[in-house]
Amino acid sequence: PLVPEDRQIVQSYGSGRFKVSHIDYQGSIIVLPRKTLSWNILVPDEISFESLSIVIEEEPRIEILLIGCGKVMKLLPRNLMKELRHIGLAVDTMDTGAACRTYNVLAAEGRRVAAGMIALN
């Protein structure tokens, strides 16, 4: 999809790596509309409210958070989902490949989307 130049775009992903807006990353990442950061998460069970603080604090506020869980989708704990919904954040979990593709589509639509993506091993 066509994404505005000031937005991040996931160009590729593979074994332990991502390429986002022409920059290579090793390990898991958080992709925000205008920046991508390393994310110290190896498995979905490590995801917490605190590990998502960069997304929660982003201004303007993020509307949709995608979680790429690795090779297979896994649900986040019910309490965490409740906390995130309580602050107005829509969360969708999926495998990492689907999260990459979905992020690009939503970014192209101009949505305020972020993605926490666990690197594939």
Structure at a glance:
By secondary structure, the protein is α/β, with parallel strands linked by helices. It has three helices and eight strands.
Structure commentary:
This protein has 121 residues and is an alpha/beta fold. 21% of the residues lie in helices and 28% in strands. The protein has three helices and eight strands. A five-stranded mixed beta sheet has the order 5-4-8-6-7, sandwiched between helices. Strands 1-2-3 form a three-stranded antiparallel beta sheet. The longest helix is centred in the last third of the chain and has 13 residues, at 96-108. The radius of gyration is 13 Å and the shape is globular. The mean pLDDT is 95.
Largest pleated sheet = 5 strands, mixed
Percent of sequence in beta strands? 25-35%
Strand order of the largest sheet: 5-4-8-6-7
Q: What's the average pLDDT?
A: 95
Q: Could you estimate the helical fraction of the residues in percent?
A: 10-25%
DSSP helical segment count:
3
Map the helices and strands:
Blueprint: E1 10-14, E2 17-20, E3 23-26, E4 29-31, E5 36-38, H1 53-56, E6 64-68, H2 78-86, E7 90-94, H3 96-108, E8 113-117
Parallel strand pairs: 6-7, 6-8
Antiparallel strand pairs: 1-2, 2-3, 4-5, 4-8
